[in-house]
Structures are given as C-alpha cells and as structure tokens.
Amino acid sequence: MDFSYDARTEDLRTRMLAFLDEQVLPAEPVFHAQHAAGHPWGRPPVLQELKTEARRRGLWNLFLPDDRFGAGLTNLQYAPLAEITGRSPFIAPEAVNCAAPDTGNMEVLSLFGTPGQQDRWLKPLLDGAIRSAFCMTEPEVASSDAANITTRIERDGDSYVVNGRKWWSSGALAPECELLIVMGKTDPEGPRHRQQSMILVPRDTPGVRVERGVHVFGYTDGPHGGHGEVVFDDVRVPAENIIAGEGEGFAIAQARLGPGRIHHCMRLIGMAERAFDLMCERAGSRVAFGRPLAEQGVVREWIAEARVRIEQARLLVLKTAYLMDTIGNKGAHTEIQAIKIAVPAMAEWVIDKAIQTHGGGGVSQDFPLAELWAHARTLRLADGPDEVHRASLARRELRRYQNT
Amino acid sequence: MDFSYDARTEDLRTRMLAFLDEQVLPAEPVFHAQHAAGHPWGRPPVLQELKTEARRRGLWNLFLPDDRFGAGLTNLQYAPLAEITGRSPFIAPEAVNCAAPDTGNMEVLSLFGTPGQQDRWLKPLLDGAIRSAFCMTEPEVASSDAANITTRIERDGDSYVVNGRKWWSSGALAPECELLIVMGKTDPEGPRHRQQSMILVPRDTPGVRVERGVHVFGYTDGPHGGHGEVVFDDVRVPAENIIAGEGEGFAIAQARLGPGRIHHCMRLIGMAERAFDLMCERAGSRVAFGRPLAEQGVVREWIAEARVRIEQARLLVLKTAYLMDTIGNKGAHTEIQAIKIAVPAMAEWVIDKAIQTHGGGGVSQDFPLAELWAHARTLRLADGPDEVHRASLARRELRRYQNT
Amino acid sequence: MDFSYDARTEDLRTRMLAFLDEQVLPAEPVFHAQHAAGHPWGRPPVLQELKTEARRRGLWNLFLPDDRFGAGLTNLQYAPLAEITGRSPFIAPEAVNCAAPDTGNMEVLSLFGTPGQQDRWLKPLLDGAIRSAFCMTEPEVASSDAANITTRIERDGDSYVVNGRKWWSSGALAPECELLIVMGKTDPEGPRHRQQSMILVPRDTPGVRVERGVHVFGYTDGPHGGHGEVVFDDVRVPAENIIAGEGEGFAIAQARLGPGRIHHCMRLIGMAERAFDLMCERAGSRVAFGRPLAEQGVVREWIAEARVRIEQARLLVLKTAYLMDTIGNKGAHTEIQAIKIAVPAMAEWVIDKAIQTHGGGGVSQDFPLAELWAHARTLRLADGPDEVHRASLARRELRRYQNT
Amino acid sequence: MDFSYDARTEDLRTRMLAFLDEQVLPAEPVFHAQHAAGHPWGRPPVLQELKTEARRRGLWNLFLPDDRFGAGLTNLQYAPLAEITGRSPFIAPEAVNCAAPDTGNMEVLSLFGTPGQQDRWLKPLLDGAIRSAFCMTEPEVASSDAANITTRIERDGDSYVVNGRKWWSSGALAPECELLIVMGKTDPEGPRHRQQSMILVPRDTPGVRVERGVHVFGYTDGPHGGHGEVVFDDVRVPAENIIAGEGEGFAIAQARLGPGRIHHCMRLIGMAERAFDLMCERAGSRVAFGRPLAEQGVVREWIAEARVRIEQARLLVLKTAYLMDTIGNKGAHTEIQAIKIAVPAMAEWVIDKAIQTHGGGGVSQDFPLAELWAHARTLRLADGPDEVHRASLARRELRRYQNT
Fold first, then answer.
1. Which of D330, D326, D337 is nearest to D76 (CA)?
2. Contact flag A298-C297 (C-beta cutoff 8 Å)
3. In chain B, whose CA is at the least distance from the CA of A374?
4. For the stretch B243-275, what's the b/e string if a residue is b when 16 or more beta carbons lie within 10 angstroms of its beta carbon?
5. CB–CB of C397 and B308 under 8 A?
6. pTM here?
7. How does strand B177-185 pair with strand B131-135?
8. DSSP for B112-168, written as a single string
9. Residues D376, A283 contacting (CB under 8 angstroms)
10. Kind of pairing between the strands at C177-185 and C287-288
11. B398 shares contact with chain C (CB less than 8 Å)
12. Using the beta-carbon criterion (under 8 Å), do A364 and B214 form an inter-chain contact?
C-alpha cells in the first residue's frame, strides 16, 4: 500500500497546480460575473477558454482509467489531481473534462457501450463537445433502494418506450446537454437486482420534458445546467440504445457509483483544503477585540482540528483508491462506503468553521465557502444517504462475527 | 417564574394559530410563485393581503411592549406568538408587522425618538405602510466589536454628514424601504462606548447608494428586500435626525439588540417545530428497504433528540423573557447571550436532521427546510457570532469566582 | 407552570445550603479516609453523625410526597433541594435519608404496602435505621425489556419460592442492608405486563447469596454497600410478602421508576454545578503558558457552554416536576424520558470539561470529578439505556402524525 | 509512503497474534484474580510466565529501534505489533517488555546514557529484570509547560541534590521498580529550554519517599505499580548520574515523548479494535425488544462509524510512523501532535459505544471496556492535554500563511 507519487503523477500534479493558480482561480470572478449576465442554465464563455487551455496543457480526461479513451491513470494516481480540481470545484473539474455526471456516463459507455454507442456518444463527450445527464433518482420514492424505482422501459417492437419521472438529473437544463442515460425497470417482476436496465435517450427525443431545475440551498447550479426534473412521456428510442442488455441496470449502476463516489471524495478533500486556506488567511488578517483571530484559542482549535480531520480523510481516500486499483471496486466496497460516510461530513465541518471565521462574509457570495458548504452537505445525501451506507457497512462488519 | 399563558395570551395564541393554518401556510406556494414572477426585491402581492387580514384579526404589532404604540405585551406573552410566526418565518412575521429589522427600528423610535421623529417615521412603520433598514455591520471590520466601526457621522452646521460602507442592511433593496437607521462614529476619540451615534437617513437622500444584495447560501431574501450593501457618500441630513443625541449609539444598539435577539430565538423555536413536523410526517410516509423511516432506529433517535432539544431551548427562551420582563434587559444579559448561543444551534441541528430525512428533497425548494436551515445557520453569526457571546458569558461567570 | 420557590421551599433551600456548606463538604475527606481505613462495604462513621445532624435540622425524608410518612413536598418543591444534595452526591443524599435505592423502596412501600409491611419495613427505613436493595436487573438479559426477566417467584402453599440471579442490586453488600425487594415472574405465560410481581425478601433468608460487588469504572461504591450480584436459590418467604398482589410487578416498577428517574436528574444538575464550580475555580488559579486558563479561549467556551447546558437541563427537570405534580407520572411520561435522555449526557459533558481543566488531577481521587463522571456516565444506562428511552419517546411523538 | 508489511513484520505479526490468542487473552482472568488476591502494587505471577514465553517466541524489546539493544524495527514495522498488544493493554505490552514508562526510559538510556549508565540500568531493564519510573509531572503546576517545573537538581561537590514533588510517576509503587529518572531544574535562570536536566535516582536512595498511588477513575493500576506521588527530600546522587549533561533535560524529554506518544497511539488502535470486537459480538448475541441489537439501527450506526474512525486513525498513525522513520521525530512533529489529538478521542468514542452496547456490564469489571475507557480518556491528558497540542499544531499551520 504505497501512497507515494510516481513520476507521472508528480508531473501531472505540478501542471495541475500551475493550471489552478494561473488560470482557474483568477477565472472565478469572471465565471460568476458572466453567469450572472448570461443564460440562467448556460455555461459562462470563460469555461470554454479554460477547457482549451487545459487540453493544451495535457490536463484532459484524467479520470478515465481506460487508456484507449482517457489518461489511463489508476485511482491512486488520479486522487491528488482530482483533489486539486476540488479547490475550485465549480470550474476546474469541467475545465479538465473530469466533471460529474459526464465522467460517470463516459465510464459507463467505455465499459458497457457498443462500438456504435461509443462512436455516437462517448467520442463527443471525451472531446467536451457535448454534455450529458444521468437520470436515476425519482422524486416519489426513496431511490437509494433500487427496488423502489418506478420508471418503466418497455420493449415495443424495435423500440423501447420510457415512462417515468426523474429528478436531480444534473446538467439536464444546459443547452449543451444532448444525452440522457436513464435507469428504469424492464422486468418489474424479475429478481430484485435484475429488474433494472439503462438506456440512452437523446435529449431531443419527443416526450422528454425537462420541467424545472431543482435548487440546492438556494443555488441553481445554473452554470452547469442545473439539476433537472425530467418527465419521460412515452419516449420511444431504438432498441439498440439499451446499454449492455436488459437486466444489467443495477450492475451498471454499481459499476458507475464506485468511481463516482471516490471522485466526489477526492474533490471534497480539495474543497476542505480551500476552506482551510481561507480560514487561516482570514484568521491572520481579521482583528477582533484587539487581537487577530489567529491568536484566539477557539479559532486555533478549529484550525488544528481541521488539519487533523482533513489528513485522516485524505489517507482513507488514498487507501480506498489503492484497493480499487488492486482488488477492484467490489473488493473495496467497505472502503468506498467508509469514505462516502467520512469525507462529506469532514468537509462540511471544516467549511462550517471557515464560514464562522469569516463572519457574515462566510455565508455570502463574496467567498466560495457557502456554496462549497452546500455542495458538501448535499453529498451526505447524493449517491445514497449516510444512513444507508452506514447500515450496509455495519451489516458487512457484523457478518464477520456471526459464528463467534 | 410562571410560564403559564394568561387569558390574553391564550386568546392571541388561538387566533395566531388559526391565522397560520388558514391563511399563512396556504399562501406559501403563492408567495414563492409571485416572487419568482415579479421584481427580484419586491414583495409578493399576497403579503399585502395577509397583512390586511392579520390586522383585521387583531394580530398586529404584537412585538411592541409600549402600549401607546403596539400591543403592550410582555416578552413572556409575546414568546408563544412569535414562535408561531416562526413556523412560516418568511411570511408570518411580516404579515403581522412583527418582522426584523422593522421591529427593532420601531422599538428604537418608540424608546428614543422625539415626537417629531415618531410622527414622521414610527407611525408609517406601525401602519406597515413603509419599511426600514438598519445599517450597522461593516464589511471591512469585525463589527461584533463596536469599537471597530469606521463609518463617520460628522456635524456640519445644522446637518450631519455621513460617510461609510455598511452591509447586511436587511430590506434595503426593497422599493418600500424608505428609512435607514445608521450607526457611525461622531467622536472617534471619545470613551469606547460613547464614540457612536445613530441617525435617521431617508433612503432617497443624495449620496445613499445601495450597491447590491448580499446572499445567504444562495438565497437573496428577495421578497424582503434582500440584504443591502449600502454606501454613504457625503450623505447630508438635518441635525435633528440624530437619535437621542451624540454618543448614544452604543446604548441604543444594546437596547435594540436584546429584544431583537430574543425575537429571533422565539421564531427559531417555531422553525424547529416546523422542521420537526415535516420530519415526522416524512418518516411516517416514506418507505425504504421495506419499512417506513419511522420504524428505523436512526430516524427515531433524531426525532427523540429533536424533541428533547426543542423543549429545552423553549424553556430557556421563556425564562429569558420572564427575566427581561421583571429585571430588565440588562439584568437578563447572561440569559440573552445563553439563548443566542443555544437556540440557533438547536434549530440548525433539528433542521439538518429533517433535511436528511427528506433525502434530495430536503436541500431543494420543494420543502422549506433548506431555506430554514440557511436562516438558522446565519443566526449563529448575525447579532454577534457565537464565539463572542460565549467569551462574554464566560467572563461574567468567572467573575463570580474571582475571590475564591 | 410556575417555577418560583414558595416560602417553604425557600426556607428548606436555605437550610439545605447551610447544611451542605457547614457539614457535608467538610466531611468529604473524612468520609473517604474512614472508608479507606474501614470495612470495604461499610458506612463511614461520619455518615451517622451527618444523619443525626440533618434530622436535627429538619432535613429528613424530603423526597416522600406522602405526608403521612415523609415531608409531603411536591416534586417542584423537592427539585432544588435534591439538586443541592447532588453537589456532594456520595454523602448528602443519604445524610438526609433521600438516597436511592431506599427512596424508591420507601415509595413503593408507602404506595402499595400493607399496614403490616409498612410497619415492619417502611418505618425503620424512614428512620434510617436499616437499608434496603432493589433486585430487578439480571445479568443474562437486556433488562430494560421487562418481558426478558427470568427470575421466578412461585407460589407454594403459604409461601413464595424465589429463584434467579440479579445484579446491580445497589447497597446489597452493606451490613445495614436488611431488605431486598425482588422483581420476578409469577405468571410467565400471562399478558406481557401482568407476568411480573414484586416481593419482599429479608436479606438473611436462607438461599439468598450476595456473591460479589459489581464495580463502576473501578469504583466499588463501597461506602454505600456496593452493587450486589445476588443469587436466589429456592428462597422461601411468606405469601404475605408479595407487594400489592400477583401481576402487579410491572405497574409497581413503573410507579417506582418515574420518581427515581427525576430524583437522579435533580441530583445530576447539582453534580454538574459542582463540576462547574471546580472548573471555574481551577481556571482562575491555574497558569499555563503565561496566562490563567480563565483567559484562554477554549476554557471560556467550555464555561459558557456548560452554563447554557446546565440551565436548559434544569428547566426541563422543573417542567417535568411540575407536570408530575399536576397531571401525574403517567401524563409526564414523555418529559420523564426526555430528562432521562438529556440530563446525564449534559452532566457527563460538563464534568468531562471540568476534568480536562484539572489536568491529571481531574481523573484522580484528589477531586470528586472522576467519580462524578463515572456516576453520570452510568446513568446513561441505569433505569434503561438512552436508546430505549429515545425509541419510546419517538414512537409516542410519531403517533401524533399518524393520521396526517 | 508505503504502508505494506514487509516479510519481517508479517512474520512478527503472525507470531504476535498467536501469542495474544494463545497466551495473553486466556491469562486475563488469571491476571485479575491473582492481583485481587495479592499485593496491591505487585505484579501477578502469570505476568512473569508470559514474559518468559514471549521471550521464547522472539517477541521482546520490539519497540527499540537501536538494534544494539532491541529489535531494531522501524516505527512502521513496530506499529502493527504494538497495535496487537493494545488489544490487551494491561498485560501484553509488559509481557513483551514494551510497556511504558520503561520503554521511554530504555530509549533515553540507549540514546543518551554513558556506557556505565547503560551497563548499570539499561541492561536489567532490557532483560525485564527490574522496572523503572519517570518523574516529570508535578502536582502544583501545569506541567505541560516545562518552564513551570519547580523540582531542583543542585550540584554539590561530586553529587547532585534533588528536591521536589512529582506525581503520575507510573510504576513507582511496584516492588520491582529500582530506578527513577527525574527531571528538574539545574539552572532556573537559564534560557527557557536549557534550565532543565534529567538525572538517574535509584529508588532506594535516602530521601526518596513514594507517598501514595494516584488513581485513574477508581483504578489504581496496581498490577503495574500504580502511579506514584514521589517526594524528593535532599536526595543525593553521584554527579555521574546526570544524563547527557546539565541543561539537556528539555531536549531529552522531547526525544522521549515522540516515540512515547506514537506507541500510545498504536496501542489505542488495538484497544479500539478490542472494543469493536466486543461490541459486534454483543450486538449479535443480545436480544432486546424481540431483535438482536445487531438489527437495530442505532447500534449499526455505531458499528459503521467506529470502523470508519478506527481506519482513519490507523492510517494517520502509520503515516506518522513513516515520517518519523524517514524525516525524523522533529520533522514529524505536526503528525505526532495530530495523532495525539485524534487517536485517544477516537478510542474513547469507540469504547463508549461498546460500553453502551453492553448495558450495565459495560461499566463493570466483567468486560475490559470500562478500564479501557479510563485509559483512553486519561491519554487526552497524559503527555500534554489535547488543547496544548491543538494550539501548537495550529500555530505551526498558521505560520505558513503569515506572508499571504
């Protein structure tokens, strides 16, 4: 279990840090200003410039372990790079074409797509020419339990017909979003984990209706195409759009979620580090009751505790990455759940303290902290609430004691 | 220390509950829809209808203990009424003309205003005809320490000239906002607590510039006129606009803050109760992994713990109200700080658990929870961050042991 | 809901405070020294002196609401008195004959005992002439669920025969302990809450064997007769020793537990106040890194937070007392559970911070803090673990939402 | 940063696990029974048998990195071995001659001792033939600040004369304890970190008086010679007993504390794992309200959370060990502080939940949990309270931002 950076990682880290410092951080105010002045769900033009620059710098598709399509990095190699993008999580990940939900969709297409599907959809996604959404969660049911899914995908001749309602389809409101990957049931009476399938639905298919954007603590995530509530009303697509065959939906979802979860966690470490920087800078410069905050015991406790928590979370992410690389996503199941439980909570705590250190500014748009917090908090729910992960992790642990 | 409701309180409670159930809660979706369709800083028309109805029902200016101007209730009588308005905190308080910052401003004018000032400004505020803002906090300094204030109020002949920059001037962007109460220094070299004064500044005075709205976790608080960043650039007002004389600013602020803080806490109890209701309803109706959430141990722990915390916080608020009524705001200083520390944190915790119970819906605009949370979180900073209150409360406690 | 002290309470408080300051606190080192030098389960002689003095001062049997037998105080009147005894919880409660488990046993005998039972056992207990134990919990089963009880009480002619094993029978190792009140099943097949009965067993009955003392974090509670593990091996007692008849055991236990729980909570407030005093005194006198602890931010946070938590807990206890006095123990069920959840956790937190303020001394025998902590911690388990109370409280809350 | 076990570590782990399972765990009840029946400060005979057996198995002095004297393992190699001993922390560490405070004293002698000192004292300590104590902390001052030390070591001809009072001199009451290493001031007016020296004091030197044992939450730690309060009254030792020369005391203490702290943390991981095992076994076997605890949501949350916390703490300990091995104790200063903050708190939390799962048994002597807890809690104070470490760690972090 060797966490040292190899030469390639070291090189990419250096370049990623330079890109962040030279290009991304300075672009943050521009990004927000352009968004405020533009289309509510449109991407600010500066993002395209950053993408061009990132590609020029060789920072592109680093997330994809399949070197036919992406950088071919291991999770352990990718972790420190994704962490750096997490320091500016609303810009950097997309600038290097490593942003959810496209990453997961590209991963699905690279693993399970037919050559035709890859040619039609994976290629433009890898190029950053189009964007996509992932339609799994439903408003009416507890979707962390896949058996609850109610969307139907029914075979009808050479087509499938999709009916249902999804939400939290991130990116679906963006003009650039051309593809929806939809999970639904093809066989509601089948075995629990064989009922579901996934299918490719071009967003302009008749019957697809993006009704609205779902907000997150007041944020629309507009520059990323928001979080769509999408209705599928007798949506008909060719039968060949099914991914990997009927009944494979649950397995694909599992394959997609492991990397998705660790990517979130890698970036959350970076988000926490960004908040940590801001907290320390503020503590050094803000004076109250005659002394800088940095000399006040409570703020010092936060800083120490934050450092201790970040470091522990990072190590657990690295260990998980290592296990995914060596024994596979399934073997690393417990660790993936562990980081999904630990890391958002850690980031939420650190960011909260950074907010408190900033006073009123902390909850405002003048610092990225409030939006970072909202993002971290939401990740205690997205991809399954903490409670579901904890219950599952505990069941697995308890199994080891059953014969004692 | 008798917390029972007397007959008048009982009667007002019954009427307030009816108003909430019959008018306010049904108006919530209307309010949001009208706001989305209207002016970003304007009040939705339904609010005016509710105000008319509230006044008709005798639910008006209940916050004001001075019965020449308001209902003449004690804090203990007002507490359960304010709590009820806290269940719909973005509508109910203003509907009954008991919303910050106007309440504090009316209190200041009723206590310290000259008859002329009261006639010009207090009367229309009491009528709900205009709105006002309070300009104290400054972006450049830790404003919980009043000595840090940099805004200047300088005498020049028959006028005062105001120069400075304020933010978190809630309501300042509203078209209805006609009055700003501004704190600044008239005597920067005077004794620490005699340097400050307060002055009345009509918002249309030349040199007043409301530059932008400060957001709260993505929320603009638009329907309430947002939170303004206001620049005062050689703003000249008549000398008679000073409140209570030069050097009285700190004392007025203290007089204003005590009631302001307890009013926030009263409403926070109601916010927590609203979240509690939503959590219990959701727990009873949402099924995951074959059982309603209500039968799952973790959710039950939250519900029990929430009830225990709410109840303790409510009792502490009532005790504080009782002390303010009997020994005065100064005598109740420790208790006012205690609730300012305890109640926002309690509400934040309860609402967070309600959010978690709602899954993705919890952070969205489909339930009031995310916005309630943002409000509760902000109150750990507004009117002084927790840390300042804790340090001050502890100093006072420690004093009792100094000679031991 | 009036929490003010009436004249009688005020008078008793004054006398109790004087007794504590003049007699009890100075006796603490004597008590420990005598115990160390004497019988491991025997009472230090100073305790008898204190009892004589307390009785002389009219501070005796204050816990018993039945004025035929005790002081006839309401719970609300008793609360502040019990709190004072909690400041020296290993001496004061017994010095005023208000110590568990005798209080509960006296309450049971006063409520359910026949005149003969009262004459034989209640009278000497009220006189402080003998001591008693309560045998309910069993080592082999989760005893918070009364259906799990395995001890049998079987009718055989004019006798009952008791067989079983109990533990946590506090006081049972003391030479002065003459009576055991034992809960067991007379009808294991009966309705869930009618299976159990309670019976009086003189400790010297053949077949009663006190096997050992159970420790609490290294403490034996020796001066109070420890916590016995007691075996009942064909123990035969007259049929008239049954309390209130067969099948009444569960109801008696419930009647006993309500007051027992609130008495613990009242004393826990006092324990927290004692720890608070010690923390503040230490903070004022101990210097580290050039400044007294009292000027260091972290310690100040603890002090403020402790004050806020103690105050909230006290108010909840008072409310519960009030409800028990007015609507009865059954009506106050939720509140009794609420304080059982909230108060030990509060005390544990406050004492932990006081320990930390004392450095190594905090965990040692040089201050009462470590033993106070162990006692508070144990009360998160005794009389039912927190989790059982929370689950039950939540079920009750959820019931209110069932038809929504 | 490679955390994999090399072949030697793997071999030692296998042997250590076998020793624990086959010898140590079965000896636990014997150990306690022998102690209860024997000398209050004497070692139970079974310990000597275990030491003989451990040495036979090649498990001896593994802590000592200097291969002239000990096993010559790196910290990274030693970490998993020390963790295993932590599963039975009151027996296993001493059985393999790796118990504090002897380990630290042996380290000091190996690093700073003269050949004569090593021959006289290090040799018998390495053989496990004698035991030693470390006399640093003083009852009257906050000893985490070395400048507070008041004990004097004064040169007088060919001797040094020691005067002072120490406590928490662990092991000092044991009959086997023959050596005290004492820290005191030789030059109270010298530079802050050059005032202190360390000196070797044979326990039988006239003037040495071990007054009493200091308890830890009711535990005496009797089988390990307790925690002595030791008075030095004109204690005269030869001048050659000074270690490394006058003024070296602070530097020696620092050199001693780094390894001491990480050894504690390694063992705490094992203590947490032991509690985790007990919690899971209990959860699987104990039934309450019709279901095993393992099926109840709250207990499952604890189990999951415990696993997540233990794993993070372990990784941080391993990283710290790696840094100590590669960049030295000084370079790893921040990480040593980080584990000192994080690991005891983690262990305390895990053990607390295991206690709660065990009901009344959890706080009793029937399971090791209560004593494990007391030990973990004390380590939030021993070797410097959390607050001192946090303040120091934060200062170091803040330094990085000073020029921004």
1. D326
2. yes
3. B217
4. bbebbbbbebbebbbbbbbbbbbbbbbbbbbbb
5. no
6. 0.97
7. parallel
8. H--HHHIIIIIHHHHTTSSEEEEE---TTS-TTSGGG---EEEEETTEEEEEEEEEE
9. no
10. unpaired
11. yes
12. yes
Domain A7-113 part of CATH 3.30.1780.10: no
pLDDT of residue B403: 64
Q: Which residues in B lie closer than 8 A to residue A373 (C-beta atoms)?
A: 217
Residue A51, number of CB atoms within 10 A of its CB = 19
Q: Which amino acid is at B1?
A: M
Put simply, the answer to whether D288 touches C144 (Cβ < 8 Å) is: yes
A387 Cβ under 8 Å from any chain B Cβ: yes
Site from C192, C215, C217 to mutate, D interface, most D CB atoms within 10 angstroms: C217
Over 90: is that where the pLDDT of C138 sits?
yes
Interface contact D296, partner B, CB < 8 A: yes
Contacts of A301 in chain C (CB under 8 A): 297-298
Phi-psi region of C14 (alpha: psi -120 to 50; beta: other; left: phi over 0): alpha
Between C137, C217, C380, which is nearest D356 by CB? C380
**What residues of chain A lie within 8 A of the CB of D277, using their CB?**
401
State whether residue C6 sits within 8 Å of chain B by CB: no
Tens digit of pLDDT for each residue in B368-387?
999 999 999 999 999 999 99
- Decide if D215 and C216 are in contact by the 8 Å CB cutoff: no
Q: What's the CATH code, domain A131-243? A: 2.40.110.10
Alpha carbons A18 and A23: distance in angstroms, whole number? 8
Q: B295: Cβ–Cβ under 8 A, 6 or more apart, which residues?
A: none
Q: Which of C291, C293, C296 to mutate to test the interface with A (most CBs of A within 10 A)?
A: C296
Give the nearest partner residue to B217 out of A137, A296, A374, using CB atoms: A374
Kindly report, residue by residue over B279-336, the tens digit of the pLDDT: 999 999 999 888 999 998 999 999 999 999 999 999 999 999 999 999 999 999 999 9
Contacts 24+ apart (CB under 8 A), C247-250: C247/C186, C247/C187, C247/C190, C247/C194, C247/C195, C247/C196, C247/C197, C248/C112, C248/C197, C248/C198, C249/C183, C249/C184, C249/C185, C249/C186, C249/C195, C249/C196, C249/C197, C249/C198, C250/C146, C250/C193, C250/C194, C250/C195, C250/C196
Is residue B387 within 8 Å of A401, Cβ to Cβ?
Answer: no
Measured in Å, how far apart are chain A's first and last C-alpha atoms? 30
Helix (H) or strand (E) holding A233, with range, is strand A227-238
Predicted confidence band of residue A145 (pLDDT cuts 50, 70, 90): confident
Cβ distance of B387 and A356 shorter than 8 Å: yes
CB contact under 8 A, A391 and D294: no
Q: What are phi and psi of A63, to 5 degrees?
A: -75, -20
What mean pLDDT is reported for chain B? 96
Mean pLDDT, rounded, for D169-179: 97
Place of tokens 């010297």: C204
Using a CB–CB cutoff of 8 Å, tell me whether A375 touches chain B.
no
Q: Is D290 on the interface with B (CB under 8 A)?
A: no
Hey, which CATH number is domain C131-245, 2.40.50.220, 2.40.50.100, 3.40.50.10470, 2.40.110.10?
A: 2.40.110.10
Partners of residue D141 in chain C, C-beta under 8 Å: 287
Identify the CATH class of C250-399: mainly alpha
Q: Which top CATH class is B131-246? A: mainly beta
ipTM surpasses 0.95: yes
Instruction: Find the angle CA(B346)-CA(B349)-CA(B352) to the nearest 5 degrees.
Output: 145
- Residue A367 contacts B, CB cutoff 8 Å: no
B371 closest CB neighbour out of A218, A220, A362: A218
D7-126 carries CATH number 3.30.2420.10? no
Does residue C93 have a cis bond before it (omega within 30 degrees)?
no
Q: Which of B300, B338, B390 sits opposite C394 (nearest CB)?
A: B300
List the domain boundaries for chain C.
7-126, 131-245, 250-399
